[in-house]
Amino acid sequence: MDILSGCSLYQYELKSDATVLQSLASTLVELLQNNASKIPEEKILAAVAAFSHETTFRAAFCAANGLGCITREMKKGEINRLYQLSQNNGDKVSNRFARDCIEKISANDASIQYWISNSLGYKDVTHSYFYDFGRNDTFFTIEELRRIPSSSDQLETITNNITRTTLDEWNIRWVGNTPQSFYSSLALRVCEHFGGKQEHATYDQNAHLPAVNHLRHQLSSNVMPLMTLNRGSTRHRAMAFKCLCDTVTEENGPECSLVRGRFMGQSHCWNIVRIEGSEFVVDLIHEPGKFYALSSPEATKYKRD
């Protein structure tokens, strides 16, 4: 039975025979692992999606590490095909499966999750391999981004080079501090590192560009370590704040999220922290260290919604 050729997969009728579905799942995993017959990967993914509504198939596919195979393929930049499939509202089965795969992949990769959802939650931890290349319809691996010729016309890619040492150097401790004190002290230091405060009325989202272009020229690359910059917009500050919070490994550590919105057509980012069950936006640029209740007019103004 050649289900990968001939008529459309979505017109093919297959009875819910457990043995057939298990065999089919195993075959597709083998193709993902070693595609000696050179079948186009999108055709294999389409076959997986077509039968993913079958419980037996899904169980067999996962048991054979099918999602692991897909995850490995996505690391090569193939996640874009799954993302396009997830946006196909005309095919609910493929849409659901693609979303399941993306959720599985992004749960282990904060860079992919941030690209897809424009946010990282309290439990979404950034690591040394986290990077952000801004809003884009296409996902790029860090290797692909490094191969792109350096140009001031492109948004810089920022990589996480933050370690716990930074908090130690700044003499900021989670243990022995209140959450308010920790977040406020951290906000002040992040603001200072990236060029200081700016008045709300005269805020310039592009004030950091000379520093970015200088570093771009030094590195001959659009990819630059975050803390190497000495000037930064809300995008750089919010990423640094989140990554620094994530270096705290003590139990019941900081609860900090990272959100990317839009302001004047550009990425505008902010952090939300949770303190005693309540959520607040942290000011990193106008009145650093100040907290705004999430639903307050002050928070809306800061987020520029």
Automatic annotation (TrEMBL):
Name listed for the protein in its UniProt record: EDR1/CTR1/ARMC3-like peptidase-like domain-containing protein
Residue runs in coiled coils: none
InterPro entries: Armadillo-Ser/Thr_Kinase (IPR052441), EDR1/CTR1/ARMC3-like_pept-like (IPR055164)
Organism taxonomic ancestry: Eukaryota, Amoebozoa, Evosea, Variosea, Cavosteliida
Residues in EDR1/CTR1/ARMC3-like peptidase-like domain copies: 107-290
Keywords per UniProt: Repeat
